[in-house]
Amino acid sequence: MSAGGTNIIFYDIPSTLPQNAWSPNTWKTRYALNYMGLAYKTVWVEHHQVEALSKGLGAAPTGTRPNGSPLYTLPLIHDLSTGAVVADSSKIALYLDATYPNAGASGRRLIPPGSRALHLAFEAAAHPLLAPLYQYGLPATVAHLRPASTAYFERTRAEKWGVALADMAPRGAADAVEWQRVKDGFGTLDAWIQEGGVYLMGETPCYADLWIAGFVQWIKLVLPERWEDMKLWHGGRWATLLASLEPYATV
């Protein structure tokens, strides 16, 4: 929890990992709240409880299931100061900027003025680049979930991806090919960032950097052996990114 004058409840998904937090999507919002210096309380919600919680709070769906029914996911925040309930990390970032434009000692913004279109375009372009990561991250995540979430997670991910998690991770020769695809995806992100240094827009982090860091955290936490390889990629960029954001990684 960060210091500040707001009263935000942040809903996250627990695990058996030492610090609990693991989800790439909720990490984006955790980084955002910490970076802006906003006070918040984490409430841990098992996967199978997310839909009922979201409906109870009046949150909008964040997508659609394969069967056409509404999908409810975390992150989700409930701002007790305004009554707002916001789901989806990018929408949360926009909400925080609009509601708390002078947050933190330096009035930090997640999406600097004039860069909203850039951020939306970045997320739309970057997500497909990281799609190959899911075949590694999802099966590895199961081992770190609490028993209450395991069966639900396995069932819903199999429905979405069309393959059981036990059969998803590449094996044999396919592993080298698919892991290279993961590296290539991050390589494209590296090329986009290079001119600016550590961060996409220059000397200070923006939401796009936190978006990337959420996925890097996921790899580090649930795929530690893969992280040993990844942290050397692209001149050590991804290890440097996490190290630079460590002050905002409080759980």
Automatic annotation (TrEMBL):
Gene3D superfamilies: 1.20.1050.10, Glutaredoxin (3.40.30.10). Residues 13-104 form the GST N-terminal domain. It comes from the Eukaryota. Coiled coil: none annotated. InterPro entries: Glutathione-S-Trfase_C_sf (IPR036282), Glutathione_S-Trfase_N (IPR004045), GST_UstS-like_C (IPR054416), Thioredoxin-like_sf (IPR036249). This is GST N-terminal domain-containing protein. It comes from Mycena pura.
